[in-house]
Amino acid sequence: MSYPVRDARRRIQDEHVAIVEGIDHCAAQVAEPWDTARTTDRNAVTDSLRAALESTGLLEQLPLVLADVVDATGYQLRAQPVAAPPYVVITSRGPILRATIDPGRLVIRFDVFDVVRDGDPGRLPAYRRRNGVRLDVSLE
C-alpha cells in the first residue's frame, strides 16, 4: 500500500532541510523591516518573499524539490515542473508546490506567515510572521 503524503513529508524532512531553512530565512528577511509584528500589505509579503526566494536561488530549486518528492511517493509527474503556477505558487502564507499524480493532487505548503482576520468585514487581513516553517502535505 502506498502512503504518498507520508512519503512526501518524510522526503522533505530527510532530504530538503536546507530548502526549508532557506525559506524560513527568506521569510525572516521579509518581516524584518516591518515596524510592527504584522502588516496588512499583502503585496509586501508575496512580492518580497518571491524576490527573496529568487535572489537566493531557492525559487529555482523548488521545482526540483517537487520532482524529488513525487519520485519518493512512487508516482510520476505528467510534465516537468517549473518555478511558476501551477507547480510553484508564492502565496501570502508562503510557497506552495503542487503536482497531479495518479491518486490526486499533491499539495505541499511551507507556511511562514499567518493570515490574521478581524471580525470586522471592512478591515484588511493582517499577515504575521510565524515562528519557523509549518510544513503541510496533503492529497486532494
Automatic annotation (TrEMBL):
<dbReference type="InterPro" id="IPR058294">
    <property type="entry name" value="DUF7988"/>
</dbReference>
<dbReference type="Pfam" id="PF25950">
    <property type="entry name" value="DUF7988"/>
</dbReference>
<feature type="domain" description="DUF7988">
    <location>
        <begin position="6"/>
        <end position="140"/>
    </location>
</feature>
<protein>
    <recommendedName>
        <fullName>DUF7988 domain-containing protein</fullName>
    </recommendedName>
</protein>
